[in-house]
Amino acid sequence: MNGLVVLASASPRRRELLHQVGLMPEIIPSRIKEAVTGREPGQIVQELSRQKAEDVFSVCEKREGPMVVIGADTVVSVDGKILGKPGSEAEAVQMIGLLQGREHQVYTGVFMIFGPSGERLAFAERTDVQVCPMSREQIAWYVATGEPMDKAGAYGIQGYFAAFIEGIRGDYNNVVGLPVGRVCRELMGRGWRLF
Protein backbone atom coordinates (compact mmCIF):
# COMPACT_ATOMS: atom_id res chain seq x y z
CA MET A 1 0.00 0.00 0.00
CA ASN A 2 1.17 3.50 -0.80
CA GLY A 3 -0.51 6.69 0.25
CA LEU A 4 -0.24 10.40 0.79
CA VAL A 5 2.23 11.55 3.43
CA VAL A 6 1.42 14.96 4.92
CA LEU A 7 4.02 16.68 7.09
CA ALA A 8 2.44 19.10 9.58
CA SER A 9 5.62 21.16 9.74
CA ALA A 10 7.45 23.74 7.65
CA SER A 11 10.83 22.40 8.88
CA PRO A 12 13.16 21.91 5.91
CA ARG A 13 15.16 19.43 7.97
CA ARG A 14 12.17 17.15 8.57
CA ARG A 15 11.24 17.36 4.90
CA GLU A 16 14.81 16.44 3.87
CA LEU A 17 14.85 13.45 6.24
CA LEU A 18 11.65 12.12 4.65
CA HIS A 19 13.09 12.73 1.16
CA GLN A 20 16.20 10.80 2.22
CA VAL A 21 14.10 7.64 2.64
CA GLY A 22 12.10 8.20 -0.54
CA LEU A 23 8.99 9.83 0.96
CA MET A 24 7.82 13.02 -0.75
CA PRO A 25 5.46 14.64 1.73
CA GLU A 26 2.92 17.31 1.08
CA ILE A 27 3.80 20.17 3.43
CA ILE A 28 0.89 21.67 5.38
CA PRO A 29 2.29 23.57 8.37
CA SER A 30 0.13 23.68 11.45
CA ARG A 31 -1.09 27.14 12.40
CA ILE A 32 -2.05 26.40 15.98
CA LYS A 33 -0.79 28.34 18.94
CA GLU A 34 1.11 25.67 20.83
CA ALA A 35 -0.04 25.00 24.41
CA VAL A 36 2.20 22.97 26.68
CA THR A 37 0.55 20.94 29.42
CA GLY A 38 3.15 18.34 30.48
CA ARG A 39 6.35 18.81 32.44
CA GLU A 40 8.48 15.93 31.20
CA PRO A 41 10.25 16.53 27.87
CA GLY A 42 8.91 13.32 26.33
CA GLN A 43 5.34 14.26 27.29
CA ILE A 44 5.72 17.82 26.06
CA VAL A 45 6.96 16.88 22.59
CA GLN A 46 4.25 14.24 22.20
CA GLU A 47 1.56 16.75 23.18
CA LEU A 48 2.88 19.45 20.84
CA SER A 49 3.23 16.99 17.95
CA ARG A 50 -0.35 15.82 18.61
CA GLN A 51 -1.66 19.38 18.45
CA LYS A 52 0.08 19.96 15.12
CA ALA A 53 -1.07 16.67 13.57
CA GLU A 54 -4.69 17.07 14.74
CA ASP A 55 -4.81 20.61 13.36
CA VAL A 56 -3.58 19.56 9.91
CA PHE A 57 -5.64 16.34 9.83
CA SER A 58 -8.78 18.44 10.32
CA VAL A 59 -7.91 20.20 7.05
CA CYS A 60 -7.28 17.10 4.94
CA GLU A 61 -9.25 14.25 6.57
CA LYS A 62 -11.87 14.21 3.79
CA ARG A 63 -9.32 13.19 1.17
CA GLU A 64 -9.77 9.76 -0.32
CA GLY A 65 -7.30 6.92 -0.13
CA PRO A 66 -4.55 6.00 2.33
CA MET A 67 -2.96 8.94 4.08
CA VAL A 68 -0.81 9.69 7.08
CA VAL A 69 -0.38 13.07 8.76
CA ILE A 70 2.87 13.40 10.69
CA GLY A 71 3.30 15.99 13.42
CA ALA A 72 6.66 16.39 15.16
CA ASP A 73 8.24 18.58 17.80
CA THR A 74 11.77 18.66 19.21
CA VAL A 75 13.17 20.03 22.46
CA VAL A 76 16.55 19.96 24.12
CA SER A 77 16.78 19.19 27.83
CA VAL A 78 19.69 19.86 30.18
CA ASP A 79 19.46 19.43 33.97
CA GLY A 80 15.68 19.19 33.65
CA LYS A 81 15.53 22.59 31.92
CA ILE A 82 13.82 22.54 28.53
CA LEU A 83 15.36 24.60 25.76
CA GLY A 84 13.22 25.54 22.79
CA LYS A 85 14.24 27.92 20.02
CA PRO A 86 16.15 31.01 21.17
CA GLY A 87 14.31 34.32 20.97
CA SER A 88 17.48 36.39 20.54
CA GLU A 89 21.21 36.05 19.96
CA ALA A 90 21.80 36.67 23.69
CA GLU A 91 19.49 33.77 24.52
CA ALA A 92 21.30 31.58 21.98
CA VAL A 93 24.64 32.40 23.66
CA GLN A 94 23.13 31.49 27.03
CA MET A 95 21.77 28.18 25.72
CA ILE A 96 25.06 27.13 24.10
CA GLY A 97 26.79 28.08 27.34
CA LEU A 98 24.56 25.59 29.18
CA LEU A 99 25.31 22.81 26.68
CA GLN A 100 29.06 23.19 26.16
CA GLY A 101 31.36 20.73 27.89
CA ARG A 102 28.63 18.29 28.91
CA GLU A 103 25.87 15.92 27.88
CA HIS A 104 22.26 16.83 27.21
CA GLN A 105 19.18 15.11 25.84
CA VAL A 106 17.21 15.73 22.67
CA TYR A 107 13.59 14.58 22.56
CA THR A 108 11.48 14.45 19.43
CA GLY A 109 7.82 13.61 19.71
CA VAL A 110 5.94 12.22 16.73
CA PHE A 111 2.19 11.95 16.31
CA MET A 112 0.85 10.07 13.28
CA ILE A 113 -2.77 10.03 12.16
CA PHE A 114 -3.76 7.49 9.53
CA GLY A 115 -6.62 8.14 7.14
CA PRO A 116 -9.22 7.15 6.44
CA SER A 117 -9.28 4.95 9.58
CA GLY A 118 -8.33 7.79 11.95
CA GLU A 119 -5.85 5.55 13.81
CA ARG A 120 -3.53 7.61 16.01
CA LEU A 121 -0.01 6.77 17.13
CA ALA A 122 2.24 8.76 19.46
CA PHE A 123 5.83 8.21 20.53
CA ALA A 124 8.91 10.12 21.62
CA GLU A 125 12.56 9.30 20.98
CA ARG A 126 15.49 10.42 23.13
CA THR A 127 19.09 10.90 22.04
CA ASP A 128 21.96 11.83 24.37
CA VAL A 129 24.44 14.34 22.91
CA GLN A 130 27.89 15.18 24.30
CA VAL A 131 29.24 18.64 23.44
CA CYS A 132 32.94 19.42 23.86
CA PRO A 133 34.10 22.40 25.93
CA MET A 134 33.73 25.69 24.01
CA SER A 135 35.36 29.06 24.59
CA ARG A 136 33.37 32.28 24.72
CA GLU A 137 34.86 33.19 21.35
CA GLN A 138 33.70 29.90 19.80
CA ILE A 139 30.19 30.36 21.18
CA ALA A 140 30.05 33.95 19.87
CA TRP A 141 31.32 32.82 16.45
CA TYR A 142 28.73 30.06 16.25
CA VAL A 143 25.82 32.31 17.23
CA ALA A 144 27.03 34.93 14.69
CA THR A 145 26.55 32.36 11.89
CA GLY A 146 22.79 32.71 12.43
CA GLU A 147 22.39 28.95 12.45
CA PRO A 148 21.05 28.64 16.04
CA MET A 149 18.09 30.96 15.65
CA ASP A 150 15.42 28.54 14.38
CA LYS A 151 16.58 25.44 16.23
CA ALA A 152 15.70 23.86 19.56
CA GLY A 153 18.59 24.26 21.97
CA ALA A 154 20.16 26.87 19.67
CA TYR A 155 22.15 24.46 17.54
CA GLY A 156 21.99 22.31 14.43
CA ILE A 157 23.95 19.07 14.68
CA GLN A 158 24.01 18.81 10.88
CA GLY A 159 25.57 22.28 10.45
CA TYR A 160 28.54 24.22 11.83
CA PHE A 161 27.87 22.88 15.31
CA ALA A 162 29.06 19.44 14.18
CA ALA A 163 32.57 20.75 14.96
CA PHE A 164 31.69 20.73 18.67
CA ILE A 165 29.97 17.33 18.97
CA GLU A 166 31.99 14.72 20.86
CA GLY A 167 29.48 11.90 20.57
CA ILE A 168 25.87 10.78 20.64
CA ARG A 169 23.91 7.82 22.00
CA GLY A 170 20.75 7.15 20.06
CA ASP A 171 19.30 8.19 16.73
CA TYR A 172 21.25 10.98 15.01
CA ASN A 173 18.23 11.87 12.85
CA ASN A 174 16.23 12.41 16.04
CA VAL A 175 18.58 15.29 16.86
CA VAL A 176 18.14 16.72 13.36
CA GLY A 177 14.39 16.78 14.00
CA LEU A 178 12.69 13.48 13.09
CA PRO A 179 13.40 9.85 14.05
CA VAL A 180 12.75 8.86 10.46
CA GLY A 181 13.74 5.21 10.96
CA ARG A 182 11.01 4.76 13.58
CA VAL A 183 8.52 6.59 11.35
CA CYS A 184 9.33 4.21 8.47
CA ARG A 185 9.04 1.13 10.68
CA GLU A 186 5.60 2.28 11.86
CA LEU A 187 4.48 2.82 8.26
CA MET A 188 5.82 -0.54 7.07
CA GLY A 189 4.19 -2.26 10.03
CA ARG A 190 0.88 -1.00 8.69
CA GLY A 191 1.46 -2.28 5.17
CA TRP A 192 2.98 0.79 3.54
CA ARG A 193 5.53 0.02 0.82
CA LEU A 194 8.42 2.46 0.99
CA PHE A 195 10.76 0.88 -1.53
3D structure, described in words:
The chain has 195 residues and is of the alpha/beta class. It contains six helices and seven strands. Strands 1, 2, 3, 4, 5, 6 and 7 form a seven-stranded mixed sheet that branches. Helix 1 links the parallel strand 1 and strand 2. The radius of gyration is 17 Å and the shape is elongated.
Short description:
The protein is of the alpha/beta class and 195 residues long.
- Could you tell me the radius of gyration in angstroms? 17 Å
Content of β-strand: 25-35%
Structural class: alpha/beta
Principal-axes geometry comes out as elongated
How many helix segments? Answer: 6
Oligomer: single chain
- Mean pLDDT, to the nearest integer, reads 93
* Fraction in helix: 25-40%
Number of strands: 7
Distance between the termini: 11 Å
The largest sheet is:
7 strands, mixed
What's the helix-strand series?
EHEHEEHEEHEHH
Unreliable spans? none
Write the layout of secondary structure elements.
Blueprint: E1 4-7, H1 12-20, E2 26-27, H2 41-60, E3 67-78, E4 81-83, H3 89-99, E5 103-115, E6 119-131, H4 136-144, E7 165-169, H5 172-176, H6 180-188
Parallel strand pairs: 1-2, 1-3
Antiparallel strand pairs: 3-4, 3-5, 5-6, 6-7
